[in-house]
Specification:
The chain has about 290 residues and is mostly helical. The chain folds into 2 domains: about 170 residues, no CATH class; about 100 residues, no CATH class. Helix content is about 55%, strand content about 5%. The strands form 2 sheets. The protein has a two-stranded antiparallel sheet with strand order 1-2. A two-stranded antiparallel ribbon has the order 3-4. Strand 1 and strand 2 form a beta hairpin. The two termini are about 20 Å apart.
Length: about 290
């Protein structure tokens, strides 16, 4: 992998955000092969045998852990008010919500309905490391040098799972997190594969754009809501945050400004362009 990485530096593509594309595509292929052979079948089996209420509880449990990481990074960014809000969400869900299995904070009973998301990567960006080359990590997928560094810090020093002394329990929690995360992404990755001529470029551009939006503090997207709300005949207008009925606009140019940034320059027209904005939102969780 080191040799491929070095060779990719010499033959770097013109895309300034992806100077190591040769290396990244190799890792992407490795991850995709591993996912198709192992992770995706396991995730599909998990979805098939697990009742919806149980899946919801497990998702809430891991979201509560993510909220803890968010709270710590909010304080690290000296955003005290947001850190207190994030901490309040964790405390409520960890106590009243039974270790987070019930997401009490997302009800209308309190002020924690809007889930914030921060990590050490966004903390590094907050302190000036805004631009970073795209990097596909083995097993972990889309990232940058900055966010890869943040991933290590979060995993080793902030994630509460890492402080569990029982090795077996700790590993079970890590494996469970991987499976539940992959299960949530089944619809997203299926849609991405159907919508994109070049899944690698589509994943890269989508991930980078929405990561930049997250760092800029823009409102997070309810992926489940958009998945249920949009049909394949609808598109999404990023300027107004509204759904556009494609049947009412079939005479307009399908390559509108709202989705033109999802194309590589000089590439052919995308298939199913009406689905691509939705897939770009979903793929941000990868």
């Amino acid at each position: 992998m080191a040799l491929v990485f070095l060779s990719s530096i010499v033959s770097a593509e013109e895309n300034p955000k992806d100077p190591y594309e040769g290396f990244n595509r190799g890792v992407y292929t490795f991850n995709d092969t591993l996912d198709g052979a192992i992770l995706k079948p396991i995730a599909m089996g998990y979805n098939y045998v697990t009742p919806d209420v149980a899946k919801k509880g497990v998702n809430n449990f891991y979201n509560n852990i993510t909220d803890f990481i968010t709270a710590v990074n909010s304080f690290l960014q000296l955003n005290i008010e947001q850190g207190i809000t994030d901490t309040g969400r964790v405390i409520v869900n960890s106590t009243v919500g039974l270790l987070g299995f019930v997401d009490v904070s997302s009800t209308n009973v309190n002020n924690y309905t809007e889930r914030n998301r921060e990590d050490f990567g966004t903390t590094l960006a907050h302190y000036g490391w805004r631009d970073s080359a795209y990097l596909v990590l083995p097993l972990f997928g889309p990232s940058t040098f900055r966010d890869g560094t943040g991933l290590v810090v979060d995993g080793l020093f902030i994630d509460p799972i890492g402080y569990i002394d029982n090795v077996r329990l700790r590993n079970v929690l890590y494996v469970g997190k991987v499976i539940t995360t992959r299960a949530q992404l089944l619809d997203a990755t299926n849609l991405m594969d159907d919508a994109a001529i070049d899944p690698y470029a589509f994943q890269r551009d989508s991930w980078l754009q929405i990561r930049e939006a997250q760092i800029a503090g823009k409102k997070q997207i309810d992926y489940d809501e958009y998945l249920d709300y949009l049909s394949e005949d609808d598109s999404f207008d990023f300027t107004t945050d509204k759904v556009i009925d494609a049947s009412a606009n079939e005479n307009q140019n399908t390559e509108s400004d709202s989705i033109s940034h999802f194309k590589d320059s000089g590439s052919d027209e995308f298939n199913k362009t009406s689905q691509r904005p939705l897939a770009s939102h979903l793929v941000s969780s990868l």
